Amino acid sequence: MVTVVVLLNMLIAMMTESYQRVQTNADMEWKFACSTLWLSVFDNHSVVPPPFNLIPSMHRITVMIRWVIASLRGSFDDVPGKISWSAKRCCYWDTDVDYSMRKAEEEKYEKLIIQLIRRYLHCNGMQSRCPALPNLTQDFKEQLKEEISQELRKSLRLLNRRKTRRRTIRNGTISDGRPTANAEINCQQIPPNCQC
């Protein structure tokens, strides 16, 4: 009997505590629910739950009508930007500002990917040469700098040879592939302690 009373009191205390927690968070919960509702239903580019996603939103209908009218008109001089269609955005105007911003973002993304690939390949090459990469000594670092500068000089010599071959082929003479004196001078201008 005593255990039943104790358990009942514990149940009442737990229910009171959970009610108190809900009451203190009620304002925050209400704001969160309202913002979730706004983002899911009332936003122009919202994604609606599955049965309703087949019906286009009013914003999409108006954009599509404007797109069809502008494309049927035939003269795109008065329409700023370019009229396009994609699976992600349906029918849309690609204004010059949007296009230039997207181009800049794509270029930044491509540069970032190229840098990441180069870093990955460089790290893999370094790890295959030296498995104890974190424990590099100063002598090994100097040796690596020297190797990198030598590789840079070799690639510049190769580039200069290719340039001279192109020049001689354009002029109608055939060359044996040796670089001219100017190309050798240009390659030798790179200092041996190049900080690449």
TrEMBL record:
The keyword Nucleotide-binding does not apply. InterPro entries: TRPC_channel. One of its GO terms (molecular function) is inositol 1,4,5 trisphosphate binding. Residues 1-18 form the signal peptide. Keywords: Ion channel, Ion transport, Receptor, Signal, Transport. GO terms for biological process: regulation of cytosolic calcium ion concentration. One of its GO terms (cellular component) is cation channel complex. This is Short transient receptor potential channel 5. The gene is TRPC5_0.
